[in-house]
Automatic annotation (TrEMBL):
GO MF term set: DNA binding; DNA-binding transcription factor activity
InterPro entries (alphabetical): LysR-type_TF (IPR050389), LysR_HTH_N (IPR000847), LysR_subst-bd (IPR005119), WH-like_DNA-bd_sf (IPR036388), WH_DNA-bd_sf (IPR036390)
Pfam families, per database record: HTH_1 (PF00126), LysR_substrate (PF03466)
Organism phylogeny: Bacteria, Pseudomonadati, Pseudomonadota, Gammaproteobacteria, Legionellales
Keywords: DNA-binding, Transcription, Transcription regulation
PROSITE patterns xrefs: HTH_LYSR (PS50931)
DNA-binding keyword on record: yes
Keyword Transmembrane appears in the UniProt entry: no
Protein name: Nodulation protein D 2
Span of domain HTH lysR-type: 6-63
Length: 287
C-alpha cells in the first residue's frame, strides 16, 4: 500500500471504533456526528478492502482483519504521538502542504494576502485550495482530507471543530447601474417584487437570519457562487443579495450599484471564521 495515497488520520478513528465497537459511541468520543463517522468507516473499508466490522444486535463485531490490525494501529499511534509531542512547528523551515477549503470571503479577500505572506516567510509551505461544495460535510472533511476551512460561521459542525473569528460583513442588495431601481431608495415591496439571482450559500445565511416567509423572493436563477451572480446582474435586471465587502471588492469598474437592504433592523451580520479540528489547531499553533 502506498502511504502517500492514504490519509493516516483514518487510523485514529479506526482505533476509536475498535475501542467503542459502536459507530454512535465512536462518533461521540471523536466529537463528530454519526453520519460523519459512518463516512469515515466507509473510507476505512475501502482502504483495507475488508468490512472491518459486522453489525450485531448490541454493536459492532470486529472482523479477523480488524483484530489483526488492532495491535499494529495502537503501536503506530503511540509512536506518532511521541513524534508530534516532541516536535515544534517552525513555519520558516517546515515542509508541508495544507489542504484548505475556502468560501467566497476566503478566496476573494484573504487568499492573495495569505499567499503573499507564505511566499515571504514560509517558502516550503504549499496550499491546495478547494472550493466549497453544496453538500459540504465539514466534520468529515476536517477529520479526513482537509486541514482548515475559511467559511461562513453558520455552517453546521460538531464539537471537535475549533472556530476563530476572522471578519464580519453585512448583506446588501446589488443591481446593474442601469437597473430601474438603481436611483431609488430600495423598499421591501420593491425587493420582493423584483426578480433575483440566488446564490446557494447566501440563501442559507438569509434563512438563518430572517423568517423565510417574510422574504419570498422571485428567484429566476440559482448559481453556486458570488462571481457568477454578479456576472448575471451585469446583463439582466435581476437583483442579487450578497455580502457588501465582497461586492465592493469586485466593483472596481462600477458595473453595479450596492444598496442597503430595506429592513427595520440591520440584518444579522455575515460572519466568517477560520475552522479547524483541535488536533490541527494545537500542532500548528505557531503558523
Amino acid at each position: 500500500m502506498d502511504l502517500k495515497k492514504v490519509n493516516l488520520n483514518l487510523l485514529v478513528y479506526l482505533d476509536t471504533l475498535l475501542n467503542e465497537l459502536s459507530v454512535s459511541k465512536a462518533a461521540d468520543k471523536s466529537n463528530l456526528c454519526q453520519s460523519a463517522m459512518s463516512g469515515i468507516l466507509k473510507q476505512l473499508r475501502d482502504v483495507f478492502e475488508d468490512p472491518l466490522f459486522i453489525r450485531e444486535a448490541h454493536g459492532l463485531k470486529p472482523t479477523p482483519k480488524a483484530l489483526e490490525l488492532m495491535p499494529k494501529i495502537k503501536t503506530f499511534l503511540t509512536y506518532a504521538d511521541e513524534i508530534f509531542s516532541k516536535d515544534e512547528f517552525d513555519p520558516s523551515t517546515e515542509i508541508v502542504t495544507f489542504n484548505v477549503v475556502l468560501g467566497s470571503h476566503g478566496e476573494l479577500l484573504l487568499l492573495s494576502k495569505l499567499s503573499s505572506y507564505l511566499a515571504r516567510y514560509t517558502p516550503n509551505i504549499t496550499l491546495k485550495i478547494v472550493w466549497i461544495s453544496e453538500n459540504l460535510n465539514l466534520d468529515e472533511l476536517l477529520a479526513t482530507t482537509t486541514d482548515l476551512a475559511i467559511l461562513a460561521s453558520f455552517l453546521p459542525h460538531g464539537k471537535m471543530i475549533n472556530k476563530e473569528f476572522l471578519l464580519e460583513d453585512e448583506m446588501a442588495c446589488t443591481m446593474r447601474t442601469s437597473h430601474p431601481l438603481a436611483d431609488k431608495e430600495l423598499t421591501r415591496k420593491m425587493l420582493i417584487e423584483a426578480e433575483h439571482v440566488n446564490i446557494l450559500f447566501i440563501e442559507k445565511a438569509l434563512n438563518k437570519q430572517l423568517d423565510p416567509s417574510n422574504l419570498k423572493r422571485n428567484i429566476k436563477i440559482t448559481v453556486p457562487n458570488l462571481i457568477s451572480a454578479l456576472e448575471v446582474i451585469r446583463d439582466t435586471d435581476y437583483l442579487a443579495i450578497v455580502p457588501r465587502c465582497l461586492a465592493t471588492s469586485l466593483n472596481e469598474k462600477k458595473h453595479f450599484v450596492i444598496k442597503t437592504l430595506p429592513f427595520p433592523k440591520k440584518i444579522l451580520p455575515y460572519r466568517c471564521c477560520i475552522t479547524t479540528v483541535y488536533a490541527i489547531t494545537n500542532h500548528y499553533y505557531g503558523l
